[in-house]
Amino acid sequence: MLFPTVDFALFFCLVFLGHWVLNHNARAWKAFMIAASYIFYGWWNPHYIFLLAGVTAVAQLSAIAISRQEDQRRRVWVMAIGITATIAPLVFFKYYGFFAVNVTNAATTLHATVAPPLIQVALPVGVSFYTFMAISYVVDVYRREFPVASWVDTTLYLSFFPHLVAGPIVRPGELIPQLDIQRDPRHLDIVGAGWLILGGLFKKVVIANYLAAAIVDPVFGEPARHGSLEIAVAIVAYAVQIYCDFSGYTDIAIGVAKMLGFQFPQNFDRPYSARSIQDFWRRWHMTLSRWLRDYLYIPLGGNRKGTVRTYENLMITMLLGGLWHGAAWHFVVWGGLHGVYLVLGHWKAALRARGVLATPPDTWWVHTLQWASTFALVCVGWVFFRADSVGTALSMLGRLVTFQSGPTSLVTVPVLLAIAIGMAVQFIPRAPGAAIRSAVSKLHPVPMGIAAGFALFAITTLGPRGVAPFIYFQF
Amino acid sequence: MPAGRALVVILVSLLVWAVLYAPELKRSAEAAPVGTRRTISLAILEPLVWVTDHTGLTAAANAASRAAGRDPNAEVGGVNVGVDPLPSATPGDQNDHHQPVVKDTDIREPTPDKQLRVAIVGDSLAQGVGFAADAVFKPFWVEVFKQGRISTGLARPDYFNWMAQMHTIVDRADPDLILVMIGENDNQGLLYPDGTLEQDIGTFDWAEHYQARVERFAKIATSDGGHVVWIGLPNVSDKSRWDFIQKQDAIFQSVADELPNVSYFDSWNTFAAADGGYSAFYRDGTKVSEIRAPDGVHFNTDGYTLLTEKAAQLATKDFDLDPKTYAP
User: Fold this and answer.
1) CA dihedral sign, ordered B313, B319, B324, B325
2) The complex's ipTM?
């Protein structure tokens, strides 16, 4: 079930009603919410619910087994087995096809008889996200940062529909305690939630879908037919598209959770206003960044084992972060590129700390230069992320830097306007938004609903027809 | 705000949106396959549209749509995403094929001044072929017109009228070669352009009526000297659909056998597994590659490229299409 659909609107109205009616009865409420979440997930494909249930069972059994071990070495082993079992379905669904084709071709070349079955495995929606949440649960139990939850709580933690298919990646400590707190039905931040949902819909339906159709898909589909100007605009347009698409989704998810009285962590914080790559990763897909930091980078040693190991750990973390997006070299290159950016950033900071490199003056033009160079580097990364292969990405960048002439018909005023809006939201002060929300919150529910209805109408009218899936659903 | 009042806000907002957007919702519902869901949706939307019409909101909503650059009266299936614009006027007819063709003819020799024109028409599968055609055909010799439109077919001219569109393509682009891939969305009742039912799905006469549509479409495509490679529907992962698709393919093949300048490309058998079943992989000599999309229906980029190359090779075999227009 996609968020911007009539199906979801009807589903949510029923869930909202059931949620608040059963709010006072924790057992009934949890059973209702688990059922609703499984229906939400099974809407794509009913078979997927078995996978979700399986991952939940494995994570919970692992957590229970870890908690029963006193010996530290045994705890490590049980955790390792638990993580392996939890991540196994993700690895199979995501990487089996890639593995089978490459092994078969290599075996043919070597005249070997190895031939893994050629099975195409469709990646179930959201599996990457809830698998990461399951791993964080197992690891947090191992680290004694979180106690073993009940089966019901673990099931609801992993399946809770607002975060289920594309995050944010919520930690057990952030969500499970909220399951047992009786939410106060008298104080619902409907204006804050509505602001997030309508804003998210605007970003997704009006900006992201429009840019995808108007310039990004045609140019990335066949870059050889486009000149440097269209390629440059398409790259920036993709940067805006992926931001509006993904942050739009998470805004809606956070808003939906807020309507049910839940708080989710922030996932985006104006990432294109960053003035360094390190700063960018503190603002982009924040829940994945901190997951990679806490469950991969720090366990690898983080920055505690010397400069070279720090750089190695950064590269490993970013390469695996790239690979998490899919079994394709262009994702690996994207991750590797960001790893190199981060290593260079650390190296530069170390040189400055030692006084080898001067610290730049704190002036507006230095800030502008830092912002522009960071955004340009991020955009180069997006070319590899969006292109269907490394070759296509290189061909695009090649055409970009060699100033190829070509048609400019895709560079239109609406495209530039959509890009400008997508970029402007990175820099607009927050105060006016707060003032509008404050004014709206004083309205009676009926005029407030009418205003929201008109806003919804404007969004659906401005956006292209049809419902395009969210980019991050494929990961 | 208390939850009860919040629910009022949600319901009022959805109601206001539904009233304002009712005409568009109704058009989308009408475009859905004939069945219970469509019937229920229309039953709910009719009164809403009545309210919208009688309060003057339709005119206001239409004005808002026009201001947003969308034609409120455009066909629901007329989404232009990924569709190349056609020339505004008929280009000089370089073939001068105005006489009815009675047997297969050759495709003319392209020159740098007079490129071949290749149109790719059909549904989302044709869209994929269109993007691949951009890469497969050499721009020096060939001008490609991508005309694939998602979710369309021959069953529902009320949703998108392919007969009319094919006339437009022939008149304005005058294609020498037309790659047709259509039918994936046609497992439903056959409607007339005004939305009335011609023949329901599951009836004995459905195939006969569908064949008449396929034949009419192919005749329009070849009416001005164009050559058609009709790409049959490929095998899909959902076995329950095999029988129906094979019936469609039999119709496409039979029409291609009957009509001059129409060839049939058998994608079902070309990409089937060794046992005749569905395979997402293709073995070309010693190399195996994944060619199908995970949905078990569409192809991936490699698959569309392979499919387009094979369709072009068939055009070479049957219509003497010069291989220099596509061969690497």
Assistant:
1) negative
2) 0.78
